[in-house]
Amino acid sequence: MSRKLRGSVWLSISYVLLAVIGVFSVYPALWVVLSSFRTGNSLFSETLFPTAFTLEHYANLFSKYDFALWYTNTLKIALTTTVIGTVLTLLPGYAFSIFRFTGRKTMMSTLMVLGLFPGFMSMIAIFILLNLLNLLNTHLAVILVYAAGAPLFFLFAKSYFDTIPKSLVEAARIDGAGHLSIFFRIVMPLSTPLIVYTALSIFAGSFTDFLFAKLVLRTPETKTLAVGLFDMISSRQSTDFTSFAAGCVLIAVPITFLFILLQRLLTEGLTAGAEKG
Amino acid sequence: MQELIAKQSKSGAAKPYSTIATILSVLAMGLGQLYNRQFMKGVILLAVHAFTLYTVIFQLPHAVWGLATLGETQTQLKKVGRLYQQVMGDHSVFLMIEGLVTIFAVIILLWIYVLGIKDSYRTGKLREQGGVPNTFRQTVSFVLSYRFPYLILALPLAGVFFFTIMPIVFMILIAFTDYTAKNMPPAHLLSWTGFDAFRDVFQMKGWNTTFYKVTLWTFLWAILATLTGYFGGFGAALLVQQKRIRFKSFWRTLFILPYAIPMFVSMLILQNMFNGQFGPINQYLELLGFNRIPWLSDPTWAKVTLVIANFWVAFPVSMLMIIGIMSTIPKDMYEAADIDGASSFQKTRLITFPSVMYSMAPLLIMSFVGNMNNFNVIFLLTNGNPINSDLQFAGDTDILITWLYKLSMGYGQYNYASVIGIIIFIILSVFAIWNVRRTKAFKEDTSS
């Protein structure tokens, strides 16, 4: 076999493999989208493509369930957490990257080690603490806990700030710029990928967390999307699978779009961290 | 004029400002600063001193008593006149948390006390040498410009302290008590039981087999999940980034989809897809003439399903990262290899693989650790099931972290759950410290 022929055989195999991975990646999502348009409410279907399309399940979400309320609750929590959490992540990242001060390394390694522990390992304690503060069943509690956990993931921010040339900061300092104006006018504009990456991961995290939300938010009015959706099918019978599918679509579509839109920035943010390790 | 001051200060060596200021500061916070004519600072510190005295005299004894005894009066029915009334006793858990908070507060106050003494000594020394102590305004601006990192770290660290460190300390304490659903405050008092719960987990029949089985599966799971995700991502990256492949960004976007869908949504979807009775996967298998597979109800198949599901969400991330790293490998290395007549397999093995490995190694360790605690995949897909009656409160696919969750949230075995928590803590710390030491972000610092 000539080299050229072997090359084109390999190329066709590559395309086949790519197509297989593509199907593998897309299939579950596609299946849910199609299920959400199917008539009836069962998990079972004879065909992948529904024989009759209906929007009934989407309407159901708003009439039979409090979907709109869940959505506003979730957005409120996620947006507030994102703003506070992003600030709380960028600040330590910046402080550790630019400044040298006593206790710096100890703080850094402590934060990093703490960041490895799953947050809910001490969930009972947080629960009791919130009870003492009289914050149970409030959105404030959820926001506080999410945002307070954000600084543990400062390392990406630090690695990113490390790539910004120190000379820029020093030049600005010589010109008499204060710490805050250096941060906002020089460092921030250079850090868009980082900010997008941080904000997006905090947003996605708080948007989709159900474990802690389920523990703290106890009444139907405070439910978030994740909790609502989880409750919809966790009663093992899965009686209303198609409405669940519709709910999944309404949750996943905005987030998925955000991710795809910001793909380039995300990759930059991710790799800046990766190269630095 | 300057000489005059210098002379004065020389003769002023008789006036040991620093000693007096230090002694005054030891007597009460702020006195030294007042003596050094830093009035504003002095007044603030005096207020802190008053607060400290109040805390130490009125709250510390109660806090220590609470922590040591965990309460003495039990909630009980008491005869008041003719009626029996519920009289609230001590609440062990509240006593514990209040005790912790008070002790932490006292430690911080003592630290401020020490700093105050140091400060008045230093200012005193400055005066001995003829310097003028900073005015309050100068102090503030000094702090703003030279202590800036501490200022911006204060808020994030306070959050971490209250919602991460305190709860962890509390959890550790729980492991040494008899806190279970049957013995719960406020109805009952807790007591310290020392290492009893640890002994049970390691030695009591039933508990120890569960512990070893779950730990073994946790490690196996973490290894399988990490390796499949990493090499899957590597393979996908190599495929997509080939020179002659067209529509690269289309393929990438397609493959990123599983990563972009929220985890709890995709896991619940997969749970339905793998449903043994109605799920589409078994339907297709049947159409193709195969037997149905008990994806989620057979212990071994459930484990296989978990690895597949995790692979599905994990490979896109490593693909993204690996593509990023591959783009940083210098092109001339490949050109040189071409001239030497290397095949593309050789180029992959000798250039791409080592370069990617070099950058990815720390991240691999992190993802191994992450998978050890990959609560979501297991909780949402199998919930640790199938149930195994030989195991204590655990199913066949439970890893340590989901077992901990079941023990505490499901069965109220808080003390055992805390023991498991501590064990996870120890295992993780080993990896964390190892990783922190070899991280580049740290190595760089030593040179600068």
From TrEMBL, chain A:
Gene Ontology MF: a single term: ABC-type maltose transporter activity
Domain of life: Bacteria
Annotated transmembrane regions: 12-34, 77-99, 111-133, 139-161, 182-207, 241-262
GO cellular component labels: plasma membrane
Keyword check for Chloroplast: no
GO BP term, example: maltodextrin transmembrane transport
Keyword Oxidoreductase attached: no
Membrane topology: Multi-pass membrane protein
Gene3D superfamilies, alphabetized: MetI-like (1.10.3720.10)
Alphabetical list of Pfam families matching this protein: BPD_transp_1
Domain ABC transmembrane type-1: 71-262
UniProt keyword annotations, A-Z: Cell membrane, Membrane, Transmembrane, Transmembrane helix, Transport
Localization, UniProt: Cell membrane
PANTHER family: GALACTOOLIGOSACCHARIDES TRANSPORT SYSTEM PERMEASE PROTEIN GANQ (PTHR32243:SF34), MALTOSE TRANSPORT SYSTEM PERMEASE-RELATED (PTHR32243)
Family: Belongs to the binding-protein-dependent transport system permease family.
Protein name in UniProt: Arabinogalactan oligomer / maltooligosaccharide transport system permease protein
Organism per entry: Paenibacillus sophorae
Automatic annotation (TrEMBL), chain B:
Pfam families: BPD_transp_1
Location of the protein in the cell: Cell membrane
Membrane spanning stretches: 42-60, 93-117, 150-176, 214-238, 250-270, 304-329, 350-370, 414-434
Chief subcellular location: membrane
GO molecular function: ABC-type maltose transporter activity
Cellular component GO terms held in the UniProt record: maltose transport complex
Keywords: Cell membrane, Membrane, Sugar transport, Transmembrane, Transmembrane helix, Transport
CDD domains associated with the record: TM_PBP2
Limits of the ABC transmembrane type-1 domain: 215-432
Domain of life: Bacteria
InterPro entries: MetI-like, MetI-like_sf
Membrane topology: Multi-pass membrane protein
Gene3D superfamilies named in the record: MetI-like
GO biological process, any: maltodextrin transmembrane transport
Keyword Protein transport: no
SUPFAM superfamilies in alphabetical order: MetI-like
Free-text function comment from the UniProt entry: Part of the ABC transporter complex MalEFGK involved in maltose/maltodextrin import. Probably responsible for the translocation of the substrate across the membrane.
Protein family (similarity comment): Belongs to the binding-protein-dependent transport system permease family. MalFG subfamily.
UniProt name for this protein: Maltose/maltodextrin transport system permease protein
Native source species: Paenibacillus sophorae
